[in-house]
Amino acid sequence: MSERQPDDNGFLALPIAVLTVSDSRTEADDKSGDLLVERLRKAGHELVEKRIVPDDIYQVRAEVSRWIADESVRVVISTGGTGITGRDTTPEAVRPLLDAEVEGFGELFRYLSFQDIGSSTVQSRAVGGVANGTLVFCLPGSSGACRTAWDGILQPQLDLRTKPCNFVSLIPRMRER
């Protein structure tokens, strides 16, 4: 990411990929994926690619793996597959890929979500972490959950100007060993 520089206002646009995990959604009705694309673009980030894959652990893992191996992608955001039914396997697909899990992401998401949906938030297994220097966030499939995660966590943490700290300032050091 060294080739990218902050703009005159101190904002650094990030290249982001969006993955919708669903057996039933299509490009025509992917409200959650579309919401994330709209929000990230409005914030000034760049959409690298948006895809939809079925609720299949290996297809999810393959797509996320492809993006974390791609030097042009710095953030991957998925929506869907974080519940507790038999087909909800996004956390199982992604966790083995992570070099470090950001436990506070899921905790904060559920805290913020509780304000909107009460105790139903315990059914979410939202996950965040770092894989090969790429930030990876797995969100629930509802557009309300995506809005909560973007507005309350991702937008400020993906902004270099957020103080006292943010994810963007750490990206150059995420591959340190």
UniProtKB/TrEMBL annotation:
<protein>
    <recommendedName>
        <fullName>Molybdenum cofactor biosynthesis protein B</fullName>
    </recommendedName>
</protein>
<comment type="similarity">
    <text>Belongs to the MoaB/Mog family.</text>
</comment>
<comment type="pathway">
    <text>Cofactor biosynthesis; molybdopterin biosynthesis.</text>
</comment>
<dbReference type="GO" id="GO:0006777">
    <property type="term" value="P:Mo-molybdopterin cofactor biosynthetic process"/>
</dbReference>
<dbReference type="InterPro" id="IPR013484">
    <property type="entry name" value="MoaB_proteobac"/>
</dbReference>
<dbReference type="InterPro" id="IPR001453">
    <property type="entry name" value="MoaB/Mog_dom"/>
</dbReference>
<dbReference type="Pfam" id="PF00994">
    <property type="entry name" value="MoCF_biosynth"/>
</dbReference>
<feature type="domain" description="MoaB/Mog">
    <location>
        <begin position="17"/>
        <end position="161"/>
    </location>
</feature>
<keyword id="KW-0501">Molybdenum cofactor biosynthesis</keyword>
<comment type="function">
    <text>May be involved in the biosynthesis of molybdopterin.</text>
</comment>
<dbReference type="InterPro" id="IPR036425">
    <property type="entry name" value="MoaB/Mog-like_dom_sf"/>
</dbReference>
<dbReference type="GO" id="GO:0005829">
    <property type="term" value="C:cytosol"/>
</dbReference>
<dbReference type="InterPro" id="IPR012245">
    <property type="entry name" value="MoaB"/>
</dbReference>
